[in-house]
Amino acid sequence: MPNATGLDRRMTDAIDRIGRADLLVGIPSYRNAATIGHVARTVVEGLRRSFPRLRGVVVNADGGSDDRTPDRLSEALDGMPAVVGAYVGPPGKGSAFRAVFEAAEMLGVRACAVVDSDLRSITPEWIERLLAPVVAGSVDYVTPLYARHKHDGTITNTIAYPLTRALYGKRVRQPIGGEFAFSGDLARRFLGGGAFVPADQVWSTDIARFGIDIYMTTTALVRGARLAQAYLGAKIHDPKDPGADLGPMFRQVVGTAFRLARSNTPAWRAATGSVEVPVVGEARAVEPEEVRADAALLVRKLRAGAAEHAGVWRDALSPEASAAVRRALDEDVPHSLAGEMWTTIVYDLLAASARRPERTDAVVLALVPLYFGRVAAFIADARDMTTSASERLVEEQAVAFEERKAYLVAAWPAA
Fold first, then answer.
1. 134 and 58 share a domain?
2. pTM of the prediction?
3. Structural domain for 261, as ranges
4. Strands across the sheet with 111-114, in order?
């Protein structure tokens, strides 16, 4: 058996008892007793309904819940083989995923999926749409395609989607979505360091936290994996106000994306344009559950960050971007941070991070208040739009990232 550094003894003992499996669904958790039973029951139903001849297993990698979360999952499994225990490593989603990857390797599975433990909208069809392309052997990596409220997924909409699309040339709409599927071989690659990042530099970084999703997607892209997107409809989970909750997640996701861009320069530097990624399932217009966002709070946080991050802004931003930031600080709605100028700001800071990797954390922290301002401008622009209509604004921003990629290449440090 391979060395299991992310699994506790209960998990390795369970893997020994199970021996082999064909399919695996991982459910990372932390204090999700109220929702995880529904998620687990739905996963079991999906596996049995769509893959009756394949042996499935559920892996629950828990972060030390004190509300009986693992017990609630175990009660919902209805005899499905399971690996349940506490992951080993820094607290975070990525450490839980590491345990899932190790379990997949030990069990020799063909295909894996991971789903969030706070989902209220998951259906058995989600499991089929995520896993079936991988089981069929036509796809290596499946990302989710959700109908999300226009105020949800703000990190995705403002940076993760447009930057991933522009750098790596694939229109992966939800590169950090939460629900993914991948082959057993790709799970081993994630464990081994993935996107040209040494394995011993992965699991002690933000990849062990919220950086895991962008790490997985980037690894799949730079290794030439065959991709698909699974349409899953509305994602109803525990939403977060971008002004109140998303600062730490932003730092971990964007910091990881910036470091991966530097590690994978040869994979993206010469690429131009982008191509669509096939969709599994029919994408229908859905108006999802509302996510409330406080635009005034976002503007206050933009202004509050000015004094703290003025030095980084001065050193890293181009004259035109610096002027736009100064204007934005005086605007009731910071539209100076939108469109092409937002692209310029992100590219300036990304290039600054690449020139001085030891300063990446400071650079990403300096981007946080600007992100708050960008989201406030988006909220204003989308105020009278449905979620479906507001997608046009997201696409326009992504196109701006593509069209201005030459600016990033020119600013990038020589190898």
1. yes
2. 0.95
3. 9-280
4. 82-86, 56-62, 23-26, 111-114, 180-183, 141-147, 227-234, 279-280
